[in-house]
Amino acid sequence: MVKIALKIKNWIKGNPKEFIILLVILLFGAFLRLYKIDQYLTFLGDEGRDAIIVRKLLVYGDPILIGPGTSIGNMYLGPLYYYLMAPALLIANFSPVGPAVQIALLSVITIGFIYLIAKDWFGWRAAIIASVLYAIAPTVIVYSRSSWNPNIMPFFALLSIFSIWKVWKEHTYNWLIILGISLAFCMQSHYLGLLLFPTIGLFWLLTFLKERKVKKTKPLIKKTIIGVVIFLFLMSPLAIFDARHGWNNFGAMKKFFTVRQETVSIKPWKAIPNSLPISEKIMMRLVGANQANTGPYILGAMVALSVWFLVLKRKDLPLKTKHGFYVLLVWLGVAILGLGLYKQEIYDHYYGFFFPAPFLLIGGLGQLLLENKKRIIPTLTIIALVLLVYVNLKVDPLLKAPNQQLRRAREVAQKIKEEANGERFNLAVLAERNYEDGYQYFLERWNEKVVDINALKADETITQQLFVVCELPKEKCDPTHSPKAEVANFGWSKIENEWEVFGARLYKLVHTQP
């Protein structure tokens, strides 16, 4: 750590102007992510569930062997994100804002990381372009200010790719240890981290073949084994849990990839027809601020310029620049083909394992264009980049009203606490995309007697009162006749009272005879 601190100090002294530029970019990126974060962060059922689990770890010492469940396939991730989240929740005195700030700061670090990588591979102009665009990208910002396991993926995916770069080009094999750690975080962030393996495997193989020619493969293999052991160790809690529960998770993964043909195709060529629309959507969502028709233009420009520089002008490029482009194009290419095999809706957070890639690629291409000796080309490049910055800033998430989800959860929970009068109660939420845990987190934190209904233990778990939070329009709120399990299992009931709390309707139900 001392050596790193000295290197940073010496770099600042030797590059004061560059340090100021980087600092301004980081501060602006931090502002876009941290400003009123308590009002903008997402806090629904998933976030509440995570907070409940981590709080139990911190308060009661309950070990965590399994992470969040996936939205499809009945599969579970590993628990690394929960352990990463724990210090932030503790430092924030169990406020959900703490882990959200942690994610925001990790995103700011990613901005700086992008700057350093782009400068190393392409030059200082590329560093400014890539880091600025990443700092202001609305989609990136939205997923940078909420505590959710996929939101750590961009940093650890970038760290994984940079690690294999260091192995491939600089033969610094200690980076294989860092690679093992970062890949474990990626895999426990989202299973789309699997799509990093082909890229990493390819460049590891190229390194191995090169070392085999000079008969120096032992250091590579030794560090690879250490990296694999560390990766397996970090993945072991999930394996232990799975072994204790009949390998259900492994069976679900096997079924997902071999049986669930309505979800994923196992025929690689099926991805080819989907590659173009997916590529356009990626560019529109990540780089074009989700503005209509930006995707085809951005993609067309990037493809044309990549072909121009890497095919027609290949001999004129510095070696490190070429290799940087190769890594980015393989990373993006594998990602697009992998997503092309997925048959259902592709959400923005699925892109997390390659969030930084298009920004680095644009930075590299922009560097080459700005270096062109014909004045018209740098001029047009600056105009295009300014336009791109304008498009992103025009729809910055801070321009929208905050969702206030955290405040709503806290105030509704406070009302439930007041009306429960210290007695045991059940809880239910009627909503399109939410469930109980966001509210339940605060109730458990305040040691309220909220009880989850277990149909097999009805006498023990069904209380005398049920609080129902309805987030639907008032005319759709009918808590006594809702088919939701938490309501239906409570039994015959009537509304004893109701209130409107911060945009939600809260009902108190009590038992009645049929």
Describe the structure.
The structure is a single chain. By secondary structure, this protein is mainly α. It folds into two domains: 2-34 and 65-399, no CATH class; 405-511. It is 62% helix and 5% strand. It contains 22 helices and four strands. A four-stranded mixed β-sheet has the order 1-2-4-3, with helices on one face.
List keywords for this structure.
single chain, 514 residues
Give the tally of β-strands.
Answer: 4
Contiguous runs where pLDDT drops below 50 for at least 5 residues: none
Structural class: mainly alpha
Mean pLDDT: 91
Helices, by number, come to: 22
* Overall 3D form: globular
State the separation between the terminal residues, measured CA to CA: 70 Å
* Biggest pleated-sheet summary: 4 strands, mixed
**In angstroms, what is the radius of gyration?**
25 Å
Q: What percent of residues adopt helix (DSSP H or I)?
A: 55-70%
H-E order:
HHHHHHHHHHHHHHHHHHHEHHEHEE
Strand content: 5-15%
